[in-house]
Amino acid sequence: MGGGAGGRPMTGSSYPVARLQNLLASFLDEADALVFLCVSPAGEILDARGAWASVLGEPAPPIGLSMVDRIGTDAWRQLQAAPSEGWTVLPLTWSLPGSCVRALEARLRSGPGEYLLLVMPGLWTDERGLQELSRLHEQLINTNRELQRKNRELEAARARLATLATTDPLTGLANRRSIEEALARSLSYARRHRAPLGVVAADVDHFKEINDTYGHAVGDRVLVAFARLLDEATRHEDLAARMGGEEFLLLLPGTPAAGCRAVAERLRAAIAALRIDPLTRPVTVSFGIAAFRPADTVETLLARADRGLYAAKRGGRNRVEALPEDEDVATGPAQPASS
């Protein structure tokens, strides 16, 4: 086919023009006197195919050329005003190099999205051909809709995967990985801006006994109830996480040690006041708090909170404890807290 633009890539378009090319390729290959253009609303030629040499006596116009330069402002306005349904007959005068013009009878149809599908058949007026183009156009619209639906499904699946990667499935809180990454960012910010930062470690008291006595379903109910209290206690900038088992962590940017203690005390009172069937006694939680120091890493800050938690367990549970300010947290690993 003389002068066809072939499969040249198109730019500046979100419209699936490549899919349109594939749909029309076989039809265009059989049309000896057909010129096809895909044009953007701004008048930029996005694709040009067909028998340009035999129909207009020139190669296909380059992609990016202004349609207005070839058909004039008045014709372009008529093209824009054409209805979006069905084929519209539009007389055009196509300007050729050397001040030559060629009168044409175009068939115009709007494509899906914001782009126009313009078909210029020259002497070709076969209605069966137009019906075939209509069928291909409808197929394109349906394909585009299906593609959009698949894209929505893909985005939803990606969102679900992102949630699974960062969220504890039982409680809906952040998981260990998520809060440790957030803590690293918060530490960097606190170090640069000399801002306060606190963490609160929490562990449900006698949790093994609850599981052994009432079963894991009741144990899960206890964890979910405490997680709900944690979530209600957080501000927009805070983050609550389940670290594993009955252990939780609360990240409190902009909060000094006194503020961390106040939050922990409110949580301690709230869970003790909660009644969870079929438990016959209140659920209690022990807390350890730690506040940021300039030399802290994620590991040292969490280690101090863990040591505070262990001190609360040793002190009788259902308490909030913190290490003395001058204690060196690098003297050794914290002992595991007993439930």
Task: Name a few traits of the molecule.
about 350 residues, alpha+beta, Beta-Lactamase, Alpha-Beta Plaits, 2 domains, 5-stranded antiparallel β-sheet, 10 helices, elongated, disordered N terminus
Structural features, described:
- This protein has 339 residues and is α+β, with helices and mostly antiparallel strands.
- The protein has 2 domains: 17-157, Beta-Lactamase; 176-331, Alpha-Beta Plaits, CATH 3.30.70.270.
- It is 44% helix and 20% strand.
- The chain is built from 10 helices and 10 strands.
- Strands 2-1-5-4-3 form a 5-stranded antiparallel sheet, sandwiched between helices.
- β1 (35-39) and β2 (45-50) form a beta hairpin.
- α1 packs antiparallel against α5 (127-166), α7 (207-214) crosses α8 (216-233) and α8 crosses α9 (257-273).
- The N and C termini lie far apart (81 Å).
Summarize this entry quickly.
With 339 residues, this protein is of the alpha+beta class. Helices cover 44% and strands 20% of the residues.
